[in-house]
Amino acid sequence: MDIKKGQRRFIFFCLTPAVMLFIIFLIVPTINVFRMSTYKWGGYTDEKTFVGLQNFTKLFQSEKFYQAFQNSLLLIVVVSVITFALALVFASILSREKLKGQNLLRIIFYIPNILSVVVISAIFSAIYDPNSGLLNAILNLFRGSESAPTLWLGDQKIVIFSLSGAMIWQAIGYYMVMYMASMANVPESLYESAELEGAGRMEKFFSITIPLIWTNIRTTLTFFIISTINMSFLFVVAMTEGGPDGSTEVFLSYMYKEAYTNSSYGYGMAIGVIVFLFSFALAAILNAVTSRDHLEY
Amino acid sequence: MNNNKLAKLGISDKLYKGLNYVVLILLAIIIIVPVAWAFIASVKQDIEFYGNPWVLPQGFYLQNFVDAWEKAKMGSYMLNSLIVTSIALGLLLVIALPAAYVLSRFKFRGSVFWNMMFMAGLFINVNYIVVPIFLMLNNGDKAVRGFLGHPIFLNNLFVLALVYAAMALPFTIYLLSGYFKSLPKEFEEAASVDGAGYFRTMVQIIMPMAKPSIVTVILFNFLSFWNEYIISMTLLTTPGLRTLPVGLMNLMAAQKSAVQYGQMYAGLVIVMLPTLILYILVQKKLTQGMTMGGLKG
């Protein structure tokens, strides 16, 4: 009996701090996001009025919200398609072909992933600088330096792609290392027998590599959507602050702005709830669309 | 198909291999150049930024670093970052290790529930809940001001470290439990026969064996704590308490108005250097750890 009691005490002692911290800083705030979205509330005052779903109806009539929605969706699509395609191709080259200097290349490709988003934003802001930036200097080699400089972060039509560029630069190495690890598990014998039957590199890539790491691709896809929504927020805060003229406002930057700058916490949290539901819905849809029979190897 | 045709045309594998090198090296250049550019720019004088961005610096203008370190206070921000990161890492290990051990090795009432809760915690996102956390701490400050006379929750490096540790709990517990589960039960049994209590068994037998996963946990969380800026920006409003990424954001803003390019790049190098050095030292462990505990489909 005594042993049982000692064990229970030990478990309690080990688990309590983690559970407390988890509840206070993760569970309670998450519940609060949902609860606060039904209030009209400035945040700093005690004056709170319950308004039900009024924040949400207001939200769906807001043009700014649709703008943010559109920008977020565009970023998700552009960044994910390019990152996935490039990461897969490069991972395949690095794990299939026996090249010299592989390790060094792998080390280099992963560097962006260890840098702070603020650092990356600072570097890219400098590269995109219309006058002293590297990108225009490179372009000027081809188009002559007299032509008007491209405003990478100042032109409403371009700026979202400039952001995408920085985000792809940051993400590509991470997914590459990820896919290389799963490609390493694909048995060499499959490639050998395919080769005997006369399959080329392209065929091997599309009918062996991709199907066999499909589960892994699906997992990363879900993860990627959620992380793109978050990353785009961090990049926007550090690089453009939503400008010029709202053309780079994304979900979370809009939420942050409404909550802090406009002091309408209730409304801000309603945005949070929508984004939360949106990302899960998108992940679920993609999960259903990409589902295939599981392949064993 | 395409490749077969190429082979028939007599274009050998060598050309294909060469093409691979070209593509890979191109990507490596795209990754390396922006980072290297920041390093080079950090030793340029402000006046050098008006000319051609390709020009190498005339000399090592180290005054930029002195200015960034002293005038822009990056030195004191570095100290803040060091304090926050080390406290957060210490707290995290002390709290997460016992919790992960208990959750993965003992069956008790609630073990299934808490395992699931921490798993679900992986999906809770910091960027949404930072607003409610700010409000919670702000309310706490309002409450304690009544009898303490001053706020204690906001603008407190220890509280920030606590929030960091809490945010890292789900992932850390997930990773550590995975490792603990793989250890054979015999170790505990042997320790029990030798008369060691639960606590001693955990500290002296199990923890030393978990060293590889503890290293992974430290590396990953070091990077995320050191690079974090949204929580830090929100919870620390006193300028003197800023952490490095937030300090860099301010330098970026200052550079836009006052044209202190050199200082900004020096600040950037100051933020990036510790992570780069750490990465070069441990890069193998880091990419291995990522595939070990990160996302396995």
Automatic annotation (TrEMBL), chain A:
Q: How does it sit in the membrane?
A: Multi-pass membrane protein
- Protein's GO biological process: transmembrane transport
Q: Does the keyword S-adenosyl-L-methionine apply?
A: no
Question: Entry's CDD domains?
Answer: TM_PBP2
What residue intervals traverse the membrane? 12-34, 73-95, 107-128, 158-177, 221-240, 265-289
Q: Where in the cell is it found?
A: Cell membrane
A Pfam family hit: BPD_transp_1
GO CC annotation: plasma membrane
Protein name according to UniProt: Sugar ABC transporter permease
UniProt source species: Candidatus Pristimantibacillus lignocellulolyticus
Upper classification of the organism: Bacteria, Bacillati, Bacillota, Bacilli, Bacillales
TrEMBL record, chain B:
Domain of life assignment: Bacteria
GO BP terms = transmembrane transport
The cross-references to InterPro entries, in alphabetical order and at most eight, read: BP-dep_ABC_trans_perm (IPR050901), MetI-like (IPR000515), MetI-like_sf (IPR035906)
One cellular component term (GO) for this entry is: plasma membrane
Its keywords, alphabetically, are: Cell membrane, Membrane, Transmembrane, Transmembrane helix, Transport
Q: Does the keyword Iron-sulfur apply?
A: no
CDD domains noted in UniProt: TM_PBP2 (cd06261)
Where is it located?
Cell membrane
Where in the numbering of this chain does the ABC transmembrane type-1 domain appear? 78-282
Membrane topology per the record?
Multi-pass membrane protein
List where the protein spans the membrane.
Answer: 21-40, 82-104, 116-137, 157-176, 214-241, 261-282
PANTHER family named among the record's database cross-references: DIACETYLCHITOBIOSE UPTAKE SYSTEM PERMEASE PROTEIN NGCG, MALTOSE TRANSPORT SYSTEM PERMEASE-RELATED
Record-stated family: Belongs to the binding-protein-dependent transport system permease family.
Name used for this protein in its record: Carbohydrate ABC transporter permease
Organism expressing this protein natively: Candidatus Pristimantibacillus lignocellulolyticus
